[in-house]
Amino acid sequence: MWRYWAGGGAILATAGAGWMLLHGGEARSVPILPAQPQAVASGEALSADPQVPEATAATREEKRFNRYDKDRDGKVTRDEYLAARRKAFAKLDTNGDGRLDFDEWAIRATTKFATADRDKSGAMNATEFATTAVKRKAPSRAKCPPAQQAASAEDS
Fold first, then answer.
1. Residue 1, Cα to own-chain centre: how many angstroms?
2. C-alpha distances in angstroms, 10 versus 5, 6, 15, 17?
3. Are 21 and 15 in contact, with CB atoms under 8 Å apart?
């Protein structure tokens, strides 16, 4: 029976979408985008609005290259390329002998396991295991003002 209800709902949704496509454009009296001043239309930037974010010309790969090119000579040398790895290795090499044994290499994982195993049973249950998930950073986006602030700024 639920299939008939789902089919009927799909038909109604399709009919409604078709009606909106055919008749929705006629009822719209407000333009989608606000009218732009002549300076913006001609390509000139407005300096009066400090909230407008500016895009940088550097691509992701150019930014990555610049992080490695420490002396800014336009080339990444072997030492520049390996500097970050040497730093990470030095953090892991706790006894400073220039070699990593398994315990030094696994110290982070061992510490993470010991922290998650709250009842010290030597095994993690599902709740304890869930605390070991890698926490990802949210993708960085341009900071735009909320819609209410943008609307009130236009009214001013």
1. 43
2. 9, 6, 9, 10
3. no
Q: Is the residue at 46 inside a domain?
A: no
Answer yes or no: pTM beyond 0.70. Answer: no
Tokens read off for 80:
């520049």
Question: Which tokens sit at 139?
Answer: 């993708």
CA distance 111 to 85: 21
pLDDT, one tens digit per residue, over 66-85 is 989 989 999 999 999 999 88
Tokens 């090119």 identify what position?
Answer: 69
CA–CA separation, 134 and 155 (whole Å): 44
Q: Exposed, middle or buried: residue 69 (CB in 10 Å: 0-12, 13-18, 19+)?
A: middle
Residue 144 falls within a domain, yes or no?
Answer: no
Q: Which domain holds residue 108?
A: 98-131
Helices (H), the chain: 2-27, 38-41, 60-68, 78-92, 102-105, 107-116, 126-130, 147-155
- What is the Cα–Cα distance from 154 to 151, expressed in whole angstroms? 5
Q: Who has greater pLDDT, 51 or 4? A: 4
**How many distinct structural domains can be found in the chain?**
2
Structure tokens at 65: 């290259």
Task: Kindly state the tokens that stand for 133.
Answer: 């998930």
